[in-house]
Amino acid sequence: MVVGKQTLMGINGDEAVAYAAKQALVDVCAVYPITPQTIIVEKYAEFVAEGEVHTEFVRVESEHSAMSACVGAAAAGARTFTASAANGIELMNEVIFLASSIRMPIVLAVADRSPSGPINIHCDQTVSLAQRDTGWIMLYCENAQEAYDTTLQAFRIAEHADVQLPVMVMLDGFVLTHTLENVYLLEDKVAHKFVGTRVPMEIEVGGQKIPLKLDPKTPITIGPLALFDYYLETRIQHHEAMERARPVISSINDEWAKLSGRKYGDGFIQSFEVDDADAVIVTTGSTAGTVRYVARQLRAKGKKVGLLKVRTFRPFPSEKVAEILEGVPAVGVFERTHSIGSLGGPLFNEVRSALYDRDKRPAVLGYYGGLGGRDLHPDYFETIYKELFKVKQTGELPPRPVKYISHRE
Amino acid sequence: MAKQKPSYKEIPAAAVAWKPATDYKTGDWRSKRPIRDTEKCTRCLICWVFCPDGAIHWDGEDLTFDLDYCKGCGICAQECPVECIKMETEE
Q1: Nearest CB neighbour to A206, from listed B5, B13, B18
Q2: Any B CB within 8 A of A396 CB
Q3: Could you tell me how many CB contacts below 8 A there are between chain A and chain B?
Q4: CATH number of the domain within which B40 lies
Q5: Angstroms from A233 CA to nearest CA on chain B
Q6: DSSP state of A188
Q7: Domains held by chain B: number
Q8: Closest chain B residue to A214, measured at CA
Q9: Does B84 map to a domain?
């Protein structure tokens, strides 16, 4: 594969996202700082101050205002970017629903941090996963390189004519946001060509095709009242747009691979040694790196273990996940979140549900851990693989399918 | 049979309104309508200023209530200094 010249930089995940946003030629960035996302804001503010970007940088007074300003700017036709974390995402929640409902292709970087309380600034994915029904496309990154690559891809996916939906790019707090890694950046001109120019969505109003854009020449009302008579129809349109994003996410992942030499599976899932595996761990984000390390070591000892990393959580790749996992004897779903009062967490429920209609359903166990930034040691995953092997050998399932790990008993 | 409303495939994407707000006759929300005593009324236009729906029209000589949009809130009756507006329950 012939790829263009790239610059190797020692940067953290937050900086990687800021560089990607810089190369994406963002028109408007309305953003409020919050740990562990702050470096994104600081770095981007530096680009603005140095005149390296021609972005309207809006210093808003809250995250609710940040997303509101992004919606306004996007409605005016601007390419729009913002970033936040935990409590900030919770505060912008009202406008997060609105942005996707009125089809504003905003890119939001989420530095995953545990929700309060007790107050905590470290990593888990509870807050971003709680956004799963907001109608946004959700992409989870494993490392700083993927954060850079995915942020640039996010603009293309969001603004694609068939999609026109906002995209969240998740990077694990501190594990990725504050950890220095080697990251390859594309040349500016190559990145600029890749993202292109934003073309507003075309809508048909009264038999006339016009751009979805606030323009005095073609006045429209964006975000009007729709009650029991029309609301449901608008929601089904939104659902269909999300379905149309599926081929787009894959094709942009392929296009990126040609440019950069880096490919993330089919854009949705990335599997490692799953073909003949007796036990597979499914996970997302930076944990996938740790599990891959463990799986590689166990493979060297002849153990048939594999990893399935879920990169795209919305739209969820149910078919693809089921295809890979059908026939595997035992599957463990590890989540850096929990769902109190539910059988399992969001990823566990998706994976198990995806397998329900399959003939050869695996035993699926769920694991919660690493909440509040609790370090995820490779030993935990070795233990999970051991438990999965035991299930395969004995055929016996534990009384409850989901449990916590990494805590003190 | 009443004409069926458009399907989700027919309405504009992104929930953009495809007709002006004036096409929605919000006056049918009203449970009380304003009745003005034209003898008592001094045409001071305080009601015209206060109407939150712009449903009171002034043609330069006299006032009319636009019942297509008047939601019957009664602010005009409350604000009228000569108390010439009464709110009457709709049938």
Answers
A1: B18
A2: no
A3: 56
A4: 3.30.70.20
A5: 5
A6: H
A7: 1
A8: B16
A9: yes
B88: left (phi over 0), alpha (psi -120 to 50) or beta: beta
Q: Does B18 touch chain A (CB under 8 A)?
A: yes
Domain with B53, as residue range(s), is: 26-89
Residue of A nearest to B17 (CA): A221
| Residue B2 token pair | 């009443």
Using an 8 Å Cβ cutoff, are A315 and A241 in contact?
Answer: no
Residue B55 lies in a domain: yes
* Contacts A101 to B, Cβ<8 Å: 15
Nearest to A234 among B5, B15, B21 (CB): B15
Whose structure tokens read 């205002």? A65
Phi and psi at residue A173, in whole multiples of 5°?
Answer: -60, 135
Q: Is residue B4 within 8 angstroms of chain A, CB to CB?
A: no
- Residue B5: inside a domain, yes or no? no
Those of residues 32-61 in B touching chain A at CB distance below 8 A are: none
| Cross-chain Cβ contact B11/A234 below 8 Å | yes
Question: Tokens 């292709």 label which residue?
Answer: A105
pLDDT tens for residues A232-276?
999 999 999 999 999 999 999 999 999 999 999 999 999 999 999
ipTM of model over 0.85 = no
CB A14 within 8 A of CB A188: no
pLDDT digits (tens, 9 = 90+) for A145-185: 999 999 999 999 999 999 999 999 999 999 999 999 999 99
Identify the CA nearest to A6 among candidates A239, A188, A164. A188
Count Cβ atoms below 10 Å from residue A360 Cβ, excluding itself.
10
Residue A168 three-state SS: strand
- The minimal CB distance from A237 to the residues B5, B8, B21 is found for B8
> Is residue B14 included in any domain, yes or no?
no
In the block, tokens 């068939």 appear at A162
Give CA–CA dist A367/A350, Å, rounded: 14
Three-state SS annotation for A85-97: CHHHHHHCHHHHH
